[in-house]
Structure formats: C-alpha cells, structure tokens
Amino acid sequence: LYTALPPEKRAALSLLSSGHQTGIVLPMMLVTSKISPSEYALATLAVHTNFLGDKASESTAAVVGEFGLQPVLVDWSNVEASFGAFHKQALEVQEFLGFFDGPGKKMSVIAELINQGENDQLEYKSTVRWDLRQNKKNPAIEHAALKTLTAFLNSEGGDLLIGVADDGSLVGIESDNFLNDDKFLLHVWALIKNSLGQDVSPYIKTTLEKFDKKTVCRVHCQRSPKPVFLRQSGFDEMFYIRIGPSSGSMEISEAVKFIGEHFR
After folding, report:
1. pLDDT tens-digit series, residues 147-202
2. Are strands 246-249 and 240-243 parallel, antiparallel or unpaired?
C-alpha cells in the first residue's frame, strides 16, 4: 500500500511517522483521508501516553525538529495545547496534500476548522462589515475582525473564518452584501493594508470555499517577525495579542515589555 502512494503522500507519511513517533498506521490513515486531522491528533496523544516522561518528549522534539516540523513537547498538564499542536501540523499536511488533489478530491481544511471549534488559534466571525442586528454597515464589525488578525500576527498565528457564526453554523460572506467574491476579498485586503500596514501582507493568506450556497473566507495568519499595531480610522491605535481564545489589548508599558521579550 505504501509503494502505491504518490511521492507527496509517501513524503508526508514518513515525515509524520518519524516526527510524531506514531508508527505508520496513523499517518497512513491521515494521508489517505481515512481519518480527519482531529482524529489523528487525538490518536497521536493516545499513542504518546506510552511515552510519559521528559526524556521521551525531548526525543520526540529532536526528531520533529530534524525533519522540519515545529517540535511538539507533550504537556500532560495542558493536554488541549498538545492536541492543538498535533492538530495544527496534521492540518498543514492536509493543506500541502491538497495542492496535488484533483477537483472534487481536495480535502477541506475550512470544514475541519469549522468542526474543530474556536480556540487560541481559531476564531469565527459571521461578517466582516455588516451588522446583522442593525442590518447596515458598521465599522465596529470591521474593527473586531482586524483586532483578531492583529492578535494572531502578534502571537502564534491563527485562522479567522468569516461567514461562520460563534456556534459554528454557516452564515456565508454573502451576508456582507458585496456584488461578488472578488469585491469581498478586495475589501478585506484594503482593510488589512490600511489598518495593519502593507508589510503584513506576506504573513496573511485568504481563501474562499463554498458549502452548498454559502461561502466561507479563511484568513490564515502566520506569526509576524515584527510587532503589528491596529490603526483604524475612528478608533484608538492599539496593540493586541491572543489571550486564550480571545484577543486582548495591552497598556503601553505591558506592550513595551511584551515586544521586548517576543520580538528580537
């Protein structure tokens, strides 16, 4: 079965097997779409219950680092964070393999993110500009989305899904009342460049995916190498970071200390 896999899936399988020390079965099931990234992450944690102790974790981190993945030290005092780390890497593998899949076969990263639920590196927004309660444009709605993106950039990165309600139900970017998807993306990027600066562009990627008749926008952020401030007209300039599953602002003294410790 392994030899029948295309080169990209064999490479992904070997990377996960060596990096996560899970053997070959779990990675095989992930790269052949038999299990989801969430199921893979949960099963990987179960495998690591046999390796309790610092030495095993350090060994795992060394192997993962050698093969190019971010080290995952299983922290049994914070299982959710360890699950999130394995899940993130499984998603990255899934997204990589998606480039090689033909139409109709591509695995949906956005669907997996919706099923996952909001967390430190994932947040949902129903719209990017339209106030559904007042049925009109509202700059505060835009500010909320920009605040999340700023916090992701200043922390460990993350994903903002636009067109998804807090409970995970689909609203669709159609609720923002743009003429088409291109107009929607142009508006999103104009907000980013005008409020966060042009230099954040390399660290942000937007993708659209349609579910039945509703479209969801994924705004994926990497961690920025430089601090990012939110400067939106009509609002005070602020510095945001992720604090658990939400975004929080910092006082000037706190921001200066944080920047000194995290941006070198």
Report:
1. 999 999 999 899 999 999 999 999 999 999 999 999 999 999 999 999 999 999 99
2. antiparallel
Indicate the angle between helix axes 37-48 and 79-98, nearest 10 degrees: 130
Element holding 210 (H helix, E strand) = strand 204-211
pLDDT cut 70: percent of the chain above it = 86
pLDDT at 116: 81
Determine the 3-state secondary structure of 212 from DSSP: coil
Decide if 237 contacts 206 (C-beta within 8 A).
Answer: no
Residue 132 above 50 pLDDT? yes
What is the SS3 assignment for 242?
strand
**Which has the closest alpha carbon to 94: 170, 216, 12?**
12
What are the structure tokens assigned to 11, written together? 């490479």
Q: Which residues of 210-239 are buried (b: 16+ CB within 10 A; e: fewer)?
A: eeeebbbbbbbbeebeebbebebeeeeebb
**CB 211 within 8 Å of CB 201:** no
Q: Is 151:143 a contact under the CB 8 Å cutoff?
A: no
Question: What is the distance between the alpha carbons of residues 23 and 70, in angstroms, rounded to a whole number?
Answer: 19
Beta-bridge partners for 32: none
Q: Please, are residues 113 and 218 in contact by the beta-carbon 8 Å criterion?
A: yes
pLDDT digits (tens, 9 = 90+) for 58-107: 444 443 444 455 656 677 677 777 777 788 888 888 777 777 765 555 55
Contact between 216 and 185 (Cβ < 8 Å):
no
CA 235 to the chain's CA centroid = 26
